[in-house]
Please model this.
Amino acid sequence: MNKVLILLLVLTFFSCQKKEKKVDLKEVKNSCHKEKQFDLYQMSEMASLMEQMYAYNKQIKDRIVKGDTVGTFPEFFNKIYIAKFTTPSDNDAFFKENAKKYIAAQKLIYSSSPATINENFNKGLDACITCHQGKCGGPIPRIKKLYIH
Model:
């Protein structure tokens, strides 16, 4: 009877044990540690130019508010006519017309008197917003922060 009892205990002990599943380490490595491919955003020439124009206008705003001179029109703004777009079809008649208006408004800032410079600076921003309303509205809130009140 002791042998039967020992046998039952041994069987019970082994039946309650969790069976371990064999794990293929290569499979785990492949499923858990797959290299992730990241697509880094590459700014187009136009997007980069617009970032530069924004930064430059921010500096000009600060100079105007302080009563400093603004210097001369930054010629790199003229790259707006030749810079490559993220989506080439966006360089259409609407954009070209608004680019001309924007450059004209920007040039006006640099020939303004102290009495009209704030108004002319804001007109330059209006030209940005008008174009962005028709194309890519994303930057509009950021552009609006440049207004001189």
Summary: The chain has six helices and no strands. The chain has a mean pLDDT of 85. The radius of gyration is 33 Å.
